[in-house]
Design a protein that fits this description.
about 325 residues; Arc Repressor Mutant, subunit A; three-stranded mixed sheet; two-stranded antiparallel sheet; about 55% helix; about 10% strand; globular
Amino acid sequence: MVSGWLATLSTEERVLLHLLANPLKEGAWDVSPELTQEFIANAVHTRRKHIPRTLKQAMKRDLIWDDTRHIIGAKQRRKVYGLTYDGRQSANTIKRRVLAIEISKGDEIQDVSKFKFDIPLLEFLSHLDETCIWQENAVSVPIIHQDNKSLSEGKKPLIKAVLKKAWQDGKITDDEQSLIEAMATFLHIAKSTISDLSTEVRLTSEKSLDDPEKIYFDLLLQAISDGVIIDSEAAMLTTLRDAVGISQETHSMLLLKAKKHLDSSPYLLAYADAVRVALADEIITSDEEAILSSMRESFGISKDEHEKIEKEERSKFE
C-alpha cells in the first residue's frame, strides 16, 4: 500500500506522472515495458489488479490512449498506454504542483524543483514522509518489492501444490523449472523464496488447498487484466490447473467470470464492496441501508442489480 507523502496523490495522478516521464511515441513499434500495466502498477506503488479500472476511467475522460505494440525484450505484443493532449496538460499541472512543494532534505529546505536527482520523480517522492521530510530509505515501497519480502499466505499452498506435482517423479525437469520460474515472475516472488519452498515440499508432504478455485480465479483475473494472456502466463496457468485439479470446464467458467468482472462498471464494483462490508455481520442495519440507498441513487444502480449483489454476498454465508 502506498504510504508517506506519495499517498496524497491519487492513483490516477501517479499514473499520469509516470506516463509523462515515459511518453508513448506515435508510430514507434518497439516500446519500453514501462508502458505496460505491470510496470505502471509497480511505478505508481499499487497492485496490478487495481490498474485496469484507473486506466479505463482516465481513457473515458480522454486523458490516456492505448495501443498494442511490441515490447522490447518480449516475444509478444502487449497493450501499452500513453497520454493524450489533455492528459499531458493534466500531468504537467500535477508536476508543477509537486515541484513547488517545500521539503526538507538533510540540511536543505527548499522546493522539490531545486533539488538535483537522477531517479524518476515518483521514486524521489517515495522517500518523503507525511511531513515532507526526505528519508534515506524509501517510505513507500513498490508492491512488487513488498511481495518479494513477504509472500502472502494465500499463495503459498498454490505454489507448493505446483512444486509437489513437479517433484512427483523425484526430479524437476528443465521444462518444469521454466514454468516455475514463469510463475515466480507472474506472482512477483523472489526465486530464492521459490527455492526454499521447493526444498520444503521435497522433504515434507503437503495438505490440499482450502479453496483452489478462488486462488486460481484471482491469478486468472490478474493475468487478463491487461487484455491478453501471453504464452508464459498461459503455460503457467495450465500447470496450476493440473496441480490443483481445475478442469477445463471450470477454467472456462472462471475465465468468463473474470472477463465479466473486468468489464463491470467501477461504480457497480464499488457498490458490491459496500454491500460486502455491510453484510460482514450478516445484517444490514437501517443506517447501512440508508448509505447503500444513497449510493444506488448516486451510481444509478437498479433494484435488480442490488438484489443480485446482495444475493451473491449472502450466499457466501451459507
